[in-house]
Amino acid sequence: MKVDGTPLRTIRAVAGGEAVEIIDQRLLPHRLVIERVASADEMIVAIRDMWVRGAPLIGASAAYGVALLMNADAGDAALEAGCERIRAARPTAVNLAWAVDRMLSHLRPLPAAQRRAAAWALADAIAEEDVAVNRAIGEHGLALIEAIAARRPGPVKVLTHCNAGWLATVDWGSATAPIYRAQERGIELHVWVDETRPRNQGASLTAWELGKAGVPHTLVADNAGGHLMQRGEVDLCIVGCDRVTIRGDVCNKIGTYLKALAAHDNGVPFYVAMPTSTLDPKLADGVREIPIEERSAREVTHIAGLTAAGELAEVCLVPKGTTAANPAFDVTPARLVSGLVTEHGVFPADETALRALAARSAR
Ligand code: MRU
Prior knowledge:
It is a single chain. The chain is α/β, with parallel strands linked by helices. It has two domains: 2-129, translation initiation factor eif-2b, domain 1 (Four Helix Bundle (Hemerythrin (Met), subunit A)); 137-362, Translation initiation factor eif-2b, domain 2 (Rossmann fold). It is built from twelve helices and 18 strands. It has helices spanning 40-48, 55-72, 76-87, 95-107, 112-151, 177-184, 201-213, 225-230, 256-266, 286-289, 298-301, 351-362, and strands spanning 2-3, 6-7, 11-14, 19-23, 34-37, 156-160, 189-194, 217-220, 236-239, 243-245, 250-253, 270-273, 279-280, 302-306, 312-316, 329-332, 339-342, 345-347. The chain is globular, with a radius of gyration of 20 Å. Bound molecules: 5-S-methyl-1-O-phosphono-5-thio-D-ribulose. The site of 5-S-methyl-1-O-phosphono-5-thio-D-ribulose has 17 residues, from α2 and β11. The active site is at 242 (proton donor). The record marks 162 as: Transition state stabilizer. Belongs to the EIF-2B alpha/beta/delta subunits family. MtnA subfamily. It catalyses: 5-deoxy-alpha-D-ribose 1-phosphate = 5-deoxy-D-ribulose 1-phosphate; 5-(methylsulfanyl)-alpha-D-ribose 1-phosphate = 5-(methylsulfanyl)-D-ribulose 1-phosphate.
């Protein structure tokens, strides 16, 4: 996507495989800072501390993390131990393990002397694939928006949660790809952006990227979605995902489940944009089986922003001594999901369809 006229991706290899450049997303929307990541350890910190975030981008970052590992030591022991450390950087988004496993199975059979070049080539391929996958999700999701636009005049009103935009992928975004494609087609749109407490990825990231792309949008508190749906102000919900089980249970940013419940109660279609790299065919019951990341209580008790003087600052919201819990994701049961928008088309959230999809993407 373009930022102020300049094409930008969230991650790219630089200097012929010496390092990787990423956007430090902790500083958006107030500062656009490109950081250089020069080792696997630095990439682990970038993933763990959410300089990069969003399931597909975490996958691409992990792949480059393995490539950085090979710059330092391409021996068997370093490969195995380093991959385990990268895999453990964050628990919920399955794209992390998916990318590490892909890198490992490609590199293991090779002699150490060939691993470095092979690792950079595959990491680049994974990143390029992510761009193509999300562009294809955009095409399939566009049909959903076009169908609503054809039914009546006025903007198609879309609600999204968290940031499943281009900042969460290498480019395009998953949930935003259909929005960007619809905008290119000249379809009138309006996007409700959930702020997405506690880290506010909606307020800080989705609002920023939609603004840069010129997509009309309005930020709402997380609690507003049910009210808007009751009033007929939402035609379609579309969100991203961090892990989807073979039965179609969807794990995504905390608060997604409440939006799906409200959508169900109000007859609003609730779609999930899912690259097949986010399908975890080993898991069935999402509520019981998907590991949910518990993040620092400080993300709930404090909030960061820009002061009137233009300084980045953090303030405390709660009485001294208040304890807080911070589960970062929740699971929306398949029965609440209208469909999964993938690079291969829109699939029902059920086991038969997802087994067929898994078989197709394994080919
Ligand atoms: O904790 P985050 O910011 O990594 O969580 C991101 C989300 O939950 C996204 O909605 C999801 O990864 C889909 S991104 C295309």
